[in-house]
Every structure is written in structure tokens, then in C-alpha cells.
Amino acid sequence: MDENQTPPIRPLMAPQGHAPGHAAGAASGEADPPHPEPLVIRDAEDVLGYIPHALGEWPCESLVAVTLCGGTLGATLRVDLPGPAAPGSTGPVPAFPESATAVSAASGSAVPRPHGADPRAAGLAQLARAVGEYVAGDRSVDAVVLAVYTDAPWPEPGRPPHADVVAAVEARLVRAGIPILDAWTVGSDHWRTSRCVDARCCPWPGKPTEALRTGRIGAEMVYRGSSYGAYTVPEARAGRIPPAAASAELDRYRDDPEAWWDPLAFTAAIAAWDEVLDGRVPAAGYRLRLLSLTLVRPALRDAVIVTAAAGAGLAWRGSRATAPLRMGPRPEVPPVLPGGADPATVLAAMDRWRGEAAQRTPIDPTGRDAGGPAGAGGGTPAEGVPARAEAVGNGGHPGAAQETTTTEYGLVLVGATGIAPDWERIGRLEHVCALLAQSEEPEVRAPALTLLAWVHWARGRGGRSLRCLERALMADPDYRLARLLKRLVEAGELSGWARSRETAWRRSAAA
Q1: CA distance 37 to 28
Q2: Per the domain annotation, does 421 fall within a domain?
């Protein structure tokens, strides 16, 4: 499955508009501009015109489900359609398990099929279960509309392509008490409802697909600054992060990643990232080179994720490397890293992070504070996904005194805090990692692409996540976090944030 969005729009009856926010990664602390007038969705053409803007790209060989909640559009969910028949098989084998472009804005499931099971039936059941569980997880959903995007032939009104997919999903949703109001098939040239077989009522072969791109909603979305297109994974470019911007001091951390385990160096690195993720310092020159080399140490890489999503304070307190600084007196002056924060700034940040520990309320791992039950609201990690940070990259502190912080740290890494992360800072992380991923150095490109994949997975964009992970593993086939995250995406695991209306990422027009 792929692309789950919870757009700030109130269509159908009384909508609220898909308001453009800042570009992801923009180094700006300004507030978003006021939302424009509500974007009213009047008919099927409007819904279909809105879908690619919600997803960020035109769906291809996909089933898209759009939830309706109290007269407004809710989440938009995309999942791969079953693929063509495999050689020697008796029927088509679903591409869903193999291609695994994910759920909740995330991915399809790759659960192994039982021996001897009909592959088509198993794939349909798996697809319907994934869609049904996601949709039913939002208790505010009243109904669903479906759209099948395919280039498969449609010979006559009563034989729409992939009718078995729609039927399987509908059966699953009806059992959950959620009706499907309509289902449309969108081909390369025409689109039409797949429910009506009367050509007098619904002319055959349908309306022009191009009108969906240029119609009222498409034009309105473009006017509001929205656009969509195929996602491109950053390519390596010679000199993108020039070695000339390095120094002997930075080279030491590249050549010996263990040097980052020094508590003061680790702290200085978190402070450098914090300034960039806050938008106070641009990612350029020596600062960009410094950030690239912090990723060579897995525990520091994990701390970067936590810094972006939940703040530098939690990252610092939950990292094993900084334990000596938390337990002892105020430390000596931290190292001066080329491109990094000055020592006084690092010490001030350390004092602030220490003080935050006594003031903050621990994350509720059940997710009840997010207004939803555990699981549906993303409050607990998916089955088989370890909550402790060590399982992802050995970033957490295992001591008893740090148990709560370690748990919170791990919940952030698996996107299961039950409360919304800082999506603006995560957007800046995406921007920086897109720059770092252009490095020709495998030790930089692999983690940068993996962090990009994590960003997309956290947002529920499994298809994009998988593409980044495949490139990361091309740079380093043994990169552990990429392999782990790829298994999650291929198994259809969603971040808890993407499952809940209260915590889900909302696509800005520029994202």
C-alpha cells in the first residue's frame, strides 16, 4: 500500500481547503499562511481530480481508497493492484506482495502464502485485509469511495478490470460496517463508474481522463500552489559534498567512526543537527560536511532521527554515548568541530536538555493521549517491531534509570509515540538528507538514503520509502538499518503516526 494522507480539506459537504504549507525542508520559522477558502468537492470528477494532489503523484496500476468522515474527505490510501500471471501459473500472481509499495500512505504486505494456496485468492485476501484494517482503524470513517487506476482493457461496461479487487475490499469493509458509496475505474484515456452497466445512464466508454488533470479541482489545487509528479530518488553527484569542505578534524571522524562515541563529540554533533533542524543554520559548506560524517556512526544516526521527530533533548538523554555527561558534573569544553556549533552554544544546549528531563511529561506508549486506542492510534509498535532503540541501531541507554527515556527513544524510531512528531523538523531532515544522498561516498549515501526512507515511511509513503531503501542497499548491500526497514515496508507495517488522523503527516502543496 502506499500514500496515506489526512488532508486538511473538508470536501463533499463543507470542506476546509488543502492549504499549502512551507516547502519541506525550508529553513524558515514563520507560521503557515492562513488556510484559503474551503475546497468543496461536488462530484466524482472532483474526488478524482483531488486524489493525485493528495498522494503527490498520479497513481499507476493502483487501488485508491478515500475515506469520508462526517461530510469531509479523510485519508487517501493507495495499494498496488495484482499483477499479470506468472509463467506456468493458473492465474495472475499479485504484484502486491512482491512489489510491496506500502500502506497508510505506506506498503503492501509480504506475508508468505500458504503452500498450495491459490495465489490470486491469497493476494486478494491479503490486500483486502490490509485496506480494511487501515480504514476500520479510524473510527470517524462513515463511508469509502474507491478508484482503480489501470491501463488494463475494459471491453464492456459490465466487465471492469480488477472487479475482483473491488469486490474483495468491499466485502471486507461491509463486514466492518463501512459502505462503499461508489467505485470508479480510471484508464489512460477514459474514466467511468464501474457500478453502472447502463450506457444510457453512464455513457460508454466514459469521460476523458485528461479532464481530471485540467478540471475545476485540478485548476484550483494548482492555483493554491499544489503540484504532483513521479518521485525521483536523489542520485550521487561528483563533488556534491566536496572533500575540499572537509578538514583533518572531520576526516578523523570519517576514518574512525568510534570517535563519535566520545560524549562531548556526540553532544556537539546533536547540537549541530538541532540548529539545522530548527532552521537557525543552513545546511551548507562545512556544516553540511559535518552532518554527513555524523551518519557514519549508527547510534548517532538514530539520535538524528529522534532529534528531528521529538527534539534534541530526548535524543541526548536517550543516547548511551552521553551517559557520562548526564551522570557527572558539568563537563569540560566540548570539541570545536569545523562547521559545528560553538562550544558555548553546545554547553548551553546541554544545560537546557538536562533541565527538560524534570519538566516534560513522558510519552504514553499506549497512545491514549492521542485520542485513540492502542494500535489504531499508533500507540504501540507493530507486532515484531522492537520498541527499544538498540534493536534499530543501538542508540538507547539500557540502564534502569533510563528505562522511560529509552522506551520513548525507541517509540520515536518506530513511529509509535501516540502523539504527533514534529513534522516541520522532519521535513527539514528530508531536505538535508536529500542533499547528503548525492554524496558518492557509500558510508554517507547509504545512511542518508535510509533516513530519507524513514521519513517517507513515517509519513506513510511506503512506495517512496522502498525506492530509497533499494538505492541505499545498492550503495551498501549490508547496511543494517536499510535491510530492517525494508522488511518492515515489505511486510506492510505502518508507522503508528500514519494510522491516526490526530498524528498523521499532512502534505503541503510543495511537499
Answers
A1: 24
A2: no
Report, as an integer, the average pLDDT of 287-313.
95
Is residue 18 pLDDT above 50, yes or no?
no
Q: Which residues contact 436 (CB under 8 A, 6 or more apart)?
A: 241, 288, 291, 292, 295, 444, 445, 448
Cis ω before 298 (30° cut-off from 0): no
CB atoms within 10 A of CB 442: 15
**CA–CA separation, 424 and 305 (whole Å):** 13
In terms of phi and psi (left: phi > 0; alpha: psi -120 to 50; beta: otherwise), the region of 61 is left
Nearest to 449 by CA among 415, 428, 483, 473: 473
Q: Are residues 66 and 173 in the same domain?
A: yes
Helices 285-294 and 263-277: crossing angle in degrees, nearest 10, is: 120
pLDDT in tens, 163-184: 999 999 999 999 999 999 999 9
What CATH number did the domain enclosing 105 receive? 3.40.140.10
How would DSSP label each residue in 430-479? HHHHHHHTT-S-HHHHHHHHHHHHHHHHHHT-HHHHHHHHHHHHHH-TT-
DSSP β-ladder status, 143-149 and 72-80: unpaired
Average model confidence (pLDDT) across the chain = 78
Place of cell 553527484: 237
Tell me the mean pLDDT in the region 66-77: 87
Q: 171 in the Ramachandran plot: left (φ > 0), alpha (ψ -120 to 50) or beta? A: alpha
For the chain, the domain total comes to: 2
Nearest to 274 by CA among 349, 359, 361: 349
pLDDT in tens, 326-356: 877 766 788 889 899 999 999 999 989 988 8
Consecutive H or E run containing 338: none
64 versus 117: which is more confidently predicted? 64
One-letter identity of residue 391:
A
